[in-house]
Structure formats: C-alpha cells, structure tokens
Amino acid sequence: MSLRRVARTAMPVLLALAVIVPETAAAPRPKPTPPPTPSPTPSPAAPTNLRITATTSASVTLAWDAPKSGSAISYYYISESGFKYFFVDPSQTTFTRTRLSPNVNYSWVVRAVVNGSPSPDSNTVTYKTPPDTTAPPAPTLSAPLYVGPKVIELDWTDSVDETSSAVTYLVNRNGVSTNYGNQSRAVVPLAPSTSYTISITARDNSGNTATSNAISVTTTAADNTSPPSAPPNFMGFEVASCEGWLSWGASTDDVDPPSVIFYQASVNGIPDHYGYGLTSAMIYATQNGTNTYSVFAVDSSGNRSQPSTVDVHNMWLC
Hints:
- By secondary structure, the chain is mostly beta strands.
- It folds into 3 domains: 81 residues, Immunoglobulins (Immunoglobulin-like); 73 residues, Immunoglobulins (Immunoglobulin-like, Sandwich), CATH 2.60.40; 81 residues, Immunoglobulins (Immunoglobulin-like), CATH 2.60.40.
- Helix content is 6%, strand content 41%.
- The protein has 1 helix and 23 strands.
- The relative contact order is 0.11.
C-alpha cells in the first residue's frame, strides 16, 4: 500500500479522535479570603465606690472611682431612679444634681461607656429629700404701671424658689385673692371710683407662701365715653385645614395704653379667645368651608370698638 493511501485512510481516524478527546478543564479560581471579623468592643469595668459627698434640701453631689482597667472611657452615664439620665465627661468623676423635689426618695447608679458599650452598674446610692417648709422670697410690688377706671396694671419682682421650677402668684385686693399664674405682671379688673389695698403672694409647689409689700390705689370714675379704634390690620389664614391663625395691630385709645385694652375674638359669632393686650389668636373652625373671624377692643371704661372681620376659606372641622 502506498504512503499516500495510508495517509488518506488514517486522516478520518485522527479527526474522530480529535473530536472525542475532551479539552483539559481550566483550573478553579481561588476563593477570596474574607476580611477578619472585627472584635467587639469589650465592656468596660464598672465604676466603683459611688457615694454622696454633699447634700442640701434640693441637691446632691455624687462622686465615684473610675474603673481600674480597660479602654479609654467615652463618657459616664448616670441613671436617676430608673427614669432620668445624665451624661458626664470622662475626665470628671463627680456630678451635682440640683432642683430635686422635696420629700422624694431618689436613687442613682453610674456606668462607664466605651464606644457605645456600657459597663455594668456601679453600686446604688439613695437619698430622700426633706420636706419643703421654706417659703419663696417675697416679691416686691412696684407702684402701678397704670390705674384706670376699671383696671390696674401691676408689675413685681420675680420670686425664685429653690425647689419649685416656677412659683405661682396671687394678686390680693381688699382681701380677695386671684391666681395669676407664673407671670410677674398682670392687668387686674377693679371697680371704678374705689380704693384698694393690693399685695402679691408668691406660692411654691409645696404650698409655702410669702407676701409682698402692700400698695394703696384709688380707681378713677368711668366717665370716658370714647371707644378705642377697631383693631387694625386684621388678618387670618388656615393651618392644617381646621386652625384659624389670626393677627392684628394694637388699638388706640384716647386714655388707655395698649397694654390694658381688652380684646375678644370670635368665630362665626361665637366668642372664643380674649385677654388684655393681645395681638394674635388661634381659633378652630366651627364649620366646613368659609369661617368668619372677628375681634373687637374694649377700653378700661368699658367702651367697645367696632369689630374687625376676616373670612378664612377652605376650612374643615377637626
């Protein structure tokens, strides 16, 4: 057999072998190594030896020892009776709590915090404040800012109490007392052509009281017949669909200053908001759609101004 014939005979066999012999598989890629899991911040050791170093009827000073080992402290966290909390810089190991209420049991624990991880609680300390039997300082009542036929405008000094956040003031006139809240200024209705002895009593949250000096005044006759001007620049707009927000300028009167002029605001003819010296009010709508708001002024002789009105549209009942 010739070499050419042998080659022609062997060629198909070689091609078949080339088809059926599999290719060598590619080597698998190595899996990436995951980053190391960061170690959690260990909890610091608890502060020790929490103690009370000083007290008054309304304050306590706490002190404690810093943890002996561990990471640098971010801050100290003080828990008071389980519902009030305070934060203290890490450089400090003392804290003074003021304005404690009288006749109340308090407790405190301290924790050290490192990067958000708190320590266990320190030991607990407790303190019961004594009952409050001390009156607030007596206010000083100044000469009246204004005396009209039917009102007097008073001003007095603030009375700051050690345990009460704000004292309440009573205006006493000829033996009758009226609570005027926490403000140290008031416009007080009186009768015309009448003499009064007036004083101010400060009362704290425990009921202790102190009374100011007394002043004597006599109101004038209610003989003025000129009304104040209608409140100017009366404007209104709706907020949250059902609230009517109103504002106006101060009325002028031929006798009274603006601070003692009485204002009454209404919605759809229904009186709603009133007071001395007001220049704004918020009154809810009483009907869907358009609500008509009005305001008028009254001077200390009882003369009433013409009303100012404004319509506020597209309102809804709350």
